Amino acid sequence: MGNCFAQSKISTAEFAPCDCPRRFKPLSVVPTARLYGSASSVHAAYVRFALLHKNLSLQFVPTDNPSSDGEPLVLEIGSETVSGYRESLLQFIEDKFPHPPLRFNLVDTAPLVVKVTWLQHRSITWHLERLVRWAEDLSTRRGKRTVDPAVGSPRMELRKFGRHYSQLLEVMLEHAQMEERVVFPVLERADRGLCKAANEEHARALPVMNGIKEDMKSIVVMDYGTPAYNEGLSNLFVRLKSLQKHCKEHFDEEEKHLLPLLEATELSEEQQMRVFEQCFDAMKATHSHLFNFLLEGLRPSEAMEYVDLIMKCSDKERTASMIQIIAK
């Protein structure tokens, strides 16, 4: 994503992964898609999410059918009308609008827990990169307003920046708890002390992350443009850049040397499924109100993969509530 922000007039606060120029060009003419189905249907919400990633003009038409997922959905795109369930409609959408791809036909035998952890790493990495570039932009401008009035005054922009960091901090803390309470214990039972270094890194990062949040609170109440304000912005950028470097090294270490060992633990399918479900139990708080924030940090194919993982959960009530969030 290094070139995603190059020579763009868009505020750094407005970027999402699919905005990168190395990704696919938008459609020259945006077709209108009409999806008919129950408003409470999990499958309808899933298909709506897929259609939105294709950059289509989407109209959802709720039906009166009280059965949420027992009846097929109907999709109209231009003169074509198709009826079917989640998988068949997704295949139709992929065939008709191949870019950006929502699924890759790759054989992936990694445990589900590894996939969940890896995708969360990707989202955290993107959001952190976004904040680093935003902080650099703030520091370079030294309190001057942006050309985009939607960003607001310097103080308003800083508050938006702080809210975004607070959301990321919440996700990062819960992700770390998920690893410490669910993922690492599986490895520790197989080889005691295996995750000692990773746990210690989590402990060292906590005061750093909380310290950045306190720095933001201090800068917001300063008079913008003053030497203290400018110095605060410069220090904020440096600390965020350092946190970004630490997170990258930490994630790389986990993905290269810890997560692959989960396959060697030889858990049964039932045990793997239990650990997989426990991962989502551990992320319950942020998934309840920051689920879209997490997905925002993923490419379309990655976001669909994460949603597919959630669809595998046995707690269908929780699955339904989470899938409904993404369609709103």
Task: Describe the protein in words.
- The protein has 328 residues and is α+β, with helices and mostly antiparallel strands.
- It has 11 helices and 4 strands, in the order βαβββαααααααααα.
- The protein has helices at residues 42-53, 86-96, 112-141, 154-190, 196-220, 227-258, 269-282, 284-289, 291-296, 300-311, 316-326, and strands at residues 32-37, 57-62, 73-77, 80-84.
- It has a 4-stranded mixed β-sheet with strand order 2-1-3-4, covered by helices on one side.
- A hairpin with a 2-residue loop joins strand 3 and strand 4 (80-84).
Topology:
Blueprint (H helix, E strand, L loop, with lengths): L31 E6 L4 H12 L3 E6 L10 E5 L2 E5 L1 H11 L15 H30 L12 H37 L5 H25 L6 H32 L10 H14 L1 H6 L1 H6 L3 H12 L4 H11 L2
Parallel strand pairs: 1-2
Antiparallel strand pairs: 1-3, 3-4
Helix pairs in contact: 1-2, 1-11, 3-4, 3-6, 3-10, 4-5, 4-7, 5-6
